[in-house]
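Support request, priority: normal
Reporter: lab tech (M.K.)
Component: structure prediction queue

Hi team, I submitted a job for PKD domain-containing protein from marine sediment metagenome yesterday, and the status page still shows it as pending. I've pasted the exact input below so you can check whether something in the sequence is tripping the parser. The sequence length should be 258 residues. Please let me know if I need to resubmit or if it's stuck on your end.
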Amino acid sequence: PVAAFTFTPTIPLVNGWVQFNASASSDPDGSIANYAWNFGDGSTDIGSVVWHTFSGAGIYVVTLTVTDDDGAANTITQTIQVGGSVNSAPTASFSYLPASPTIGEWVRFDGAGSTDSDGSISSHQWSFGDGTVPVSGPVVYHQFTGPGTYVVSLTVTDDDGATDTAVQSIGVGMVQQAPVALFTFVPVAPAAGQSVFFNASASYDPDGAIVSYAWDLDGNGVDDAFAPTMNATYNSPGVAMVRLTVIDNDGLSSTSTQ
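Reply from support: The job had stalled in the queue. We restarted it manually and it finished. Here are the results:
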C-alpha cells in the first residue's frame, strides 16, 4: 500500500486539536485494513482520521503505518511544529457617562478597561445602534439625535485575532425644559390693611407638570406660603417685593418677582 496523510492546522498551538487525515492512502491491488499512528510524543492512535493534542511546544515526528488486506505495510513520516499556547480570547467591557443622556448631549464611552489575559488588545470597534458608522478607539464620544433606547456594542480584538463583544442598552431622553412662573394679584394697588389675592395658576411647565409653589411675600428670602393661590395682608404702606418660585416634576425651577 501507499501511506499518505495531511494535518490541520499546519502550525498547531499547544493543547490545540490537530486533525490527522490518512484517507488519501491507497492500495493498488486491494484495500487498507489498518491505520496506525505514532505522534512522536509517546502517544499512539488508530483510524483513518484521528484527532490529537500536543502538550508542549516543539517539533514532533509523526508516523503513519498503513497495512493492507494482504498484510503488507507502508510507513510515512512528517514533522509537525507546535507553536505557543492556545490563545485566550479578550474580555470586552465599557462604561459611559452621563448615565442618562439627553438628545444631542455628548456621551463618553470608555472601553479602556477591556483586558486580554495572554496578550494585548489591538482594536476597539464601537457600534451605537442608531445607524451611524462604527468608530474605533478605546475612548470615544457620541451624540444621539433622537430619544429612545439604543443597543451599544464594543468589540475588542486581541493581538492573536480573537474577539469579544460587550453590549449595553442606553436610554436617551428629551432635553428637559424649565417651568414658567407667572402670577397676578388683585387689587393691583391695595391699601394698607387690605387683603391681596395672589394667583399663580397661570404658571406652566412645557414638558411636564408643576409640583410645588413657594411664595416669599416680603422679599426677605424666606418662603411664607406654598399654594398656587393665597391671600395676604400688608398692614404698613410702602413697597413689598413678592417672589414666586415653581418647581416641575423634573426638579427644574423658575422664579418670577413683582
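The chain has three domains: 6-82, 95-172, 184-257. The CA atoms of residues 180 and 204 lie 5 Å apart. Let us know if anything else looks off. Ticket resolved.
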